[in-house]
Every structure is written in C-alpha cells, then in structure tokens.
Structure prediction request, 60 residues.
Amino acid sequence: MRAQIQESGISCTDFTDTMTIGKTAEQMAATKEKPEEELAYLGLCLFGETEALKKLTGTL
Prediction:
C-alpha cells in the first residue's frame, strides 16, 4: 500500500517498529540503518483529498 500512496502523490507519514525505541535520534538512526523491506509498519497517516484517499483505502 505504501508504494501506491507514494505513486499517488498523497502526503504520508510512516510509523514503524524502529520508532518505538529510545529517543528521536536513536529512532532516526535505527530507521536509516534498517533496510526498507525489513521495516515493520505499525501505521500510515495519510493526508489528502477525501476522494483520492478513498481510492487507496476503500473501506478501511
């Protein structure tokens, strides 16, 4: 789903497992060091036009 969101141009903020450790600097370092395919996504926050969001999220 994240790839679809990026392709659509909708603003998105990710929440990953690396964001649950330590302080901000540690979280940023852990996220940068971990390969993207190994990140466990806990949530995505989307911001955009309602109809564009509905096309991506359906009835979530």
